[in-house]
Amino acid sequence: MAGQLNTFNPSPHLKASRTLRLKTFSFIFFLLLAGSISSAYSQTTGQKPTKMVSAKYSEVPLNTIKPKGWLLGQLNIMRNGTTGHLDEVYDKIKNDNGWLGGKGDGWEETPYWLDGAVPLAYLLDDRELKAKVLKYIDWSLDNQRPSGYFGPITKWERETGKKVTADSCMMGEDWWPKMVMLKVLQQYYTATSDPRVIPFMSKYFNYQLQTLQNCPVGKWTEWAQSRGADNMLVVQWLYGITREPSLLRLSSLLQSQSFTWSDWFFGRDWVIQAAAQQNGERWMTRHGVNVAMGIKDPAVQYHRTGDKKYLDALHTGFNDLMTLHGLPFGMFSSDEDLHGNAPTQGTELCAIVESMFSLEHAVAITGDTRYMDALERMTFNALPAQTTDDYNSKQYFQIANQVNIKRGVFTFSLPFERGMNNVLGMRSGYTCCLANMHQGWTKFTSHLWYATPDKGLAALHFSPNQVSAKVGKDNTMVTIDEVTSYPFSDKIEFNVSTPKEVAFPLHIRIPVWCREAAVVLNGQPLQKEKGGKIIIINRTWKQGDKVTVQLPMEVTTSNWASNSRVIERGPLVYALKLKERWEKGMDEKEGEYYNVFTTDDWNYGLIDSVVKHPGKAVSVKEIKPVTENFVWNISNAPIELQAWARKIPDWKIVNDVAPQPVTARDGLYMGKTEDKMEQVTLIPYGCTKVRIVAFPVVK
Ligand SMILES: [Zn+2]
What we know:
- By secondary structure, this protein is of the alpha+beta class.
- Strands 17, 18, 19, 22, 23, 24, 25 and 26 form an eight-stranded mixed beta sheet that branches. The chain has a seven-stranded antiparallel beta sheet with strand order 2-9-10-11-16-13-14. A five-stranded mixed beta sheet has the order 1-7-8-12-15, with no helix packed on it.
- α5 packs parallel to α8 (176-192) and α16 (296-305) runs antiparallel to α17 (309-325).
- The longest helix has 24 residues, at 19-42.
- The structure holds zinc ion.
């Protein structure tokens, strides 16, 4: 299977003489995606590690998938907001940028922004945004040093007029921001096949191989040391294209110098200690964003070595993480460190988008549906709740039971003085999230579909989109329209367009929460299947074929910290709908921001019988259709649930949060409740800013 390789349009900067090389690279890329990756991986060097295994699924090129419906609306909002314009409104990127050869910021934030702006530009096929991001890509590609080193001009280079060589590697600068730029270039290459990228990366990785003994990955920052798996990921991707044996040695060397996430995940003591300690000792190993990025480490090591112990490490580590630090919206606490599972802890936006990116790769390498379900849960619940409608402001930390958004110290493990971590602002909290948040929705879009090793397609995550790709033994270009308003709707239609009959497998994931899915082919029942599996439809497809997948969404409850209960339906968790009062503030250093309060009462406990029989006791109402104009906010919530509840008069705000009421062993709140039973309305968590999601249970 290959993507739309024939859609490459040479940019004006490409010289005609490059055409031949371009064709060569396109051909190699084609081979890679045509499923030959498995045989390629067996041709390793004879040195350890030798057992590179084929991934269960491969990523499709960036321009293979076109967002539609509400997802297109979301990406358009981002294009019109900061993703499309951060370089115009944010001084660090705007002023004399280091990644354009200037003396300004040359660390992580420009690559962070590009890591989302590049996929956005190609997913939307936006000429203006493509031209904008290309400036930074061109500068990096055109200013690689003869040694292979790249990135902003170093202080030493500026002072001496010399260039960093392998012998003078200590005059280079931090490896970390370059890891992000590699991710940017990888995505750019899948969209354009620009022939400059592969030689550039080969040269840089050769430089790394020559210099890492003298200038190890942690030489400049622990950030680089804790995030080495991102470097390895791109090295191994390049190996899939060039089969250059030294790349496997480099990846192995990077692993030996980086944080040993896989060992920690397997050993378990690390995650338990992180639940017990929030002090300054070894905090980088508990830092939520580092952990989020570390999730991919076992998958990357498994891919390179074929050692199944890494699959166990991933399974154990992820399960432990979500058990000890998990929150109802599908993420772990990260404020900034791992901080237990109380619904009053915070989660950093960077931790969400980095966890998503890690899982997108864990999904490809392992083919394990657990990571697909986990990815959808954080994408459809945690992600949309943390940004404003216009994608210009965000919270550094969101809280599950967030009864107000405001300035304050809260119970975060980084209570820095200004207290701006919870407010919605562009420059509030640390600014990493403002630069990094753009990779969330964009990469989720580009990972809706994967290629199968036998030249088919796999719909592993769902949202409205259209995919065009080459499938089957003759590489026939087919288009599949995925028509749905998932995650709000339980029905997904796949409409196939093909110029001729073509045999290929179509994989479709059945989410774990679905008791029994019904699959219909051209109006005829095809099969029924339980959740937590992937169905494979092997068939000769014809023009106009239609597969309809019905994923009945039942109302269920789940158990969280302090005997709290969460109401769920399908991929969404539901939170108490509360009127919002937005209040603008101004901070001298961190600029304009918003507090959000509610005038509604929020101190409800769910009635015991609702929790025991949610299918019967909770009513579901479809409020409005989901269109391209959809925005994740209370006025657009497409679905409302109604459930019986009682107020708990003593449940009050303490230190800006609502500490969970104490319950007895049977899970019930034993204190005083109001006599009156009331029907409360719940809406999708992602549509809320202030809310209760983890409810106490009352008689
Ligand atoms: Zn951040």
